[in-house]
Design brief:
- This protein folds into two domains: 2-195, D-amino Acid Aminotransferase, Chain A, domain 1; 198-318, Nucleic acid-binding proteins (OB fold (Dihydrolipoamide Acetyltransferase, E2P), Beta Barrel), CATH 2.40.50.140.
- Helix content is 17%, strand content 32%.
- The chain has helices at residues 55-64, 86-94, 99-105, 128-138, 157-166, 239-246; strands spanning 2-5, 19-24, 28-34, 40-43, 69-76, 109-118, 121-122, 148-150, 174-179, 189-195, 198-209, 214-222, 228-233, 261-262, 277-278, 280-281, 287-292, 296-297, 300-301, 306-310.
- The strands form five sheets. Strands 3, 4, 5, 6, 7 and 8 form a six-stranded mixed sheet that branches. Strands 11, 12, 13, 16, 17 and 20 form a six-stranded antiparallel sheet that branches.
- A hairpin with a 5-residue loop joins strand 12 and strand 13 (228-233).
- The longest helix is centred in the middle third of the chain and has 11 residues, at 128-138.
- The two termini are 36 Å apart.
- Pfam families: DNA_ligase_A_M.
- Belongs to the ATP-dependent DNA ligase family.
Length: 326
């Protein structure tokens, strides 16, 4: 079941039977299926197996859940600083030769938030409240040290709004909002997701498309050592923004600090999951105000950022360093 993005936290009365609020985890969505013989399969949203990548989660599911059970959740990795570490998940997913060692050195958790089947009962047609009660009973005896975690859930919108403000410090993107009376509809969008966003500034270092008609912006920030590094890429610009920015941008020469073609992963997206990015380099003198979410990795905003406006009143020296939001 999927969620539709919205830009506000709905009140309790906005959902049939009342709203329920859960953290939106920054991890790998996964179904855990324990067949009638006790065999465990972890499946991604695209029906790819996670068993080899996360053997410790497979074992934890085997220990915690009875045969004939299907649950929905998110595989996450908490770093030593208490934040979710998406880069660690990526290492686990691609580093086939080191998976066993990483399973011991960087164990992941499986946060379970829904129950689809157990004990011969199909819970998909049941309301969320009933599924949640059955899930709580199912996980009641799981020890504190288990890698299986029951997802927190709350009813009060005031507490949910407090969560929304404090959880980004732990790398949690925002909230998922569900109807208490809602069924689990596989492949359908019936939940809402609200991402925490902050407004900040970055330096325009390049554009896709052309300088005359920019399509997206390649954004940078200076590190403490004085190096300008790529920190993000905007979503496609509306025509009005593209037109106004074209008048502010100036083509750069070969002394630009970035290569003429950006390697895969430098300008958004997962490393190795995209081709290199061709773009036009511009003088890094124009500051843009942007809206970003909490998902970061490798010193970059992982998701596309939103362009808000140009800031001709600011110089590159006024832009925070790294990914600071102050």
């Amino acid at each position: 079941m999927a969620a539709t993005a919205i830009d506000h936290i709905p009140a309790e009365t906005a959902c049939p039977g009342g709203c329920r609020y859960e953290p939106k985890w920054d991890g790998f969505r996964a179904l855990a299926i324990v067949n009638e013989d006790g065999g465990v399969r972890l499946w991604s949203r695209r029906l790819k197996s996670f068993n080899d990548a996360f053997p410790e989660v497979v074992l934890a599911v085997f220990d915690a859940l009875p045969a004939g059970t299907v649950v929905d959740g998110e595989i996450v990795r908490w770093g030593r600083d208490g934040r979710l570490d998406f880069a660690a998940l990526q290492r686990r997913h691609v580093a086939s030769r080191r998976r066993r060692d990483l399973a011991l050195a960087e164990p992941c958790h499986y946060v379970v938030f829904d129950l689809l089947e157990t004990g011969g009962t199909d819970y998909r047609p049941r309301p969320l409240t009933e599924r949640r009660q059955a899930l709580e009973r199912l996980l009641a005896d799981v020890p504190d040290g288990s890698l299986i975690v029951l997802c927190p859930q709350m009813r009060d919108v005031g507490e949910a709004r407090l969560w929304f403000e404090i959880l980004p410090a732990q790398g949690i993107e925002g909230l998922v909002v569900k109807a208490a009376d809602g069924r689990y509809r596989e492949g359908k969008r019936g939940w809402w997701k609200v991402k925490h966003r902050a407004t900040t500034e970055a330096i325009i270092g390049g554009v896709t498309g052309s300088i005359a008609v920019p399509q997206t912006l390649i954004l940078g920030r200076y590190e403490r050592g004085g190096r300008l590094r790529v920190v993000g890429r905007t979503s496609p610009l509306p025509p009005s923004a593209s037109h106004s920015l074209a008048a502010l941008l100036t083509a750069a020469g070969d002394d630009h600090p970035w290569p003429s073609v950006l390697p895969a992963g430098w300008a958004g997206g997962l490393p190795g999951a995209e081709t290199s990015t061709s773009y036009a380099r511009v003088l890094p003198s124009v500051v843009a105000e942007i809206s970003v979410d909490a998902a970061v990795e490798h010193g970059r905003w992982r998701h596309s950022v939103r362009y808000v406006r140009a800031r001709p009143d600011l110089t590159p020296g006024d832009v925070p360093e790294g990914l600071d939001l102050e």
